[in-house]
């Protein structure tokens, strides 16, 4: 006789979506038209359910746009089963493509999808890493992501975070490539390199997705040679994000790995970059690309093409938590991005992230994202904090 089948988990219905734009401590981005502390570039999202379980996510876009998108998406979400994140998120994508695939709607869906995975984990008692395929690793190295400064200050900036335990660093944007001064660019990199801890890694992000990026393929080829001479680990966004043919040439000729893809959204946008060989390292952002569901598919697709996946993580503690869970669930993911000094990473959780003696982060093996927001801390950065935690 066969044992009787166990009863399936009852649906957990979505009752409400809440968006809380983060304001007041938005970190500098290095953009030409620089953001201000009170500008909204990230928003937290809460998905409430009839089971009294709330999932949390994060979206990388102006909070006002996330709020508007949530109003559009809510009729498609209310009453849906929150335990089916991939299906529900795909429903949102499929029913809104005609409004513009890849824009603010997709960014908002990203935060919703992360929240749905968080709910699934809380209901089942499993971490997202286990739900998404298992745990290949228990910890990962965070690389401290910093803006470039003048050479005289760059080394001191690295040292301040080195003293906090970071072993790997990415420097980017700022004056690099923007002053037609190759010697300045090299001096910044040299200063950072000399400040690294023993055995430390250094990555360089040109920020080619900045407004009116002035440089092209020849600059990128010359700069790649210089960075290789300074033992830089990878060269990120050296070209305008849509210059796929130039990326292919650069990747073929560069002595160091070429990384990019942070501005692309949904898996369809990545296919030509992967099939044509534009990247050594692909960098989707879980809070923009479509959430964990889409991030995992892109990472697996990249793996099939022999392209390394390292998520772009210039977002919030919830984005970092999602990246950590996916780092556990995928093979050969050994780095996650960690914004240096961002209040939205360091000061919104009940238990902030902390590095171990090896400069690594332990990946939580707790239900869902494995982290807990602190309502009082969140309230410092949004007027809508209470509604995030109140099911209504």
Automatic annotation (TrEMBL):
Start and end residues of each Mandelate racemase/muconate lactonizing enzyme C-terminal domain: 151-257
Recorded superkingdom: Bacteria
InterPro entries linked: DgoD-like, Enolase-like_C_sf, Enolase-like_N, Enolase_C-like, Mandelate_racemase_C, Mandelate_racemase_N_dom
Family matches, as CDD domains: MR_like (cd03316)
Entry-linked Pfam families: MR_MLE_C, MR_MLE_N
The protein, known as: Mandelate racemase/muconate lactonizing enzyme family protein
Species of provenance: Hoeflea algicola
